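Pasting as-is:
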Amino acid sequence: MEQAEALAAFEAEVRRTDVGPRLDRAALLIAAGEYPALDIERSLAVLDALATGIAALLPPSPTAAQIAEGIRRGLFTALGFRGNTEHYYDPRNSYLNDVLERRVGLPITLSVVYLEVARRLGLDAAGVAYPRHFLVKYHDGAGDWLVDPWHGGETVSMDRFRVRVREDGQVAENVADYHLAAVTTRQLLTRLLTNLKLVYLQQRDDPRALRILGYLLALSPWSFEDLRDRGALRARMGDLAGALADLEAYLAHAPEADAAQVRRLVEHLRAGRAFLDG
């Protein structure tokens, strides 16, 4: 699948109005931009097989807690899925196909694997964009439970987690519940793509950062920060027309505090384009 085809398919997926985007397919379409030969159906079949293997070990009519424990034991104990603490900023940690193959990833991609296996097993789980790292939560008759895929699928009650919040003091207790709210699929994908964007910008890998910005803007066309960043990248890569289109659109909506610097860049680009056209 060519990059343009993968991006178009991703845009169509995240703009579905019938049932909303499928997390697994959308994440794999992001990966298809990096891996043109990626067989998306094969990766989906891997997720199916993970769920099937875990289902075989569950009792009849399992409870939510039993499903969650089965996923923990299946993914993290038996198969060894884990956080990549040695090479945290390796971009492969953010591509679902790589995580399924290598069984290492970031908190958010390990959470994607957990969520997609959970969905296949009938466990109603959701992602949680906790500031320290991404988590998963599910509900059973006894209340809400948090799962930490970064730490081997450790599961704690919401009440116990709030105690930890008070003890470690890294997140203010009065905003903890806000950070523990379930995120939408679109919000999860935005965080996943933002991670990739930051990695590629730090690596000065402009073509890949530009590609990821295309995905972010397909997901949120009026993300003006991403529009500005894509314009700046296009300028650095010599695409004056594309840079001007992005930056002029950004200036139409930019906060005044940020507008002056961008306006100077636009003036510089206009002068360069006039020189080339002349």
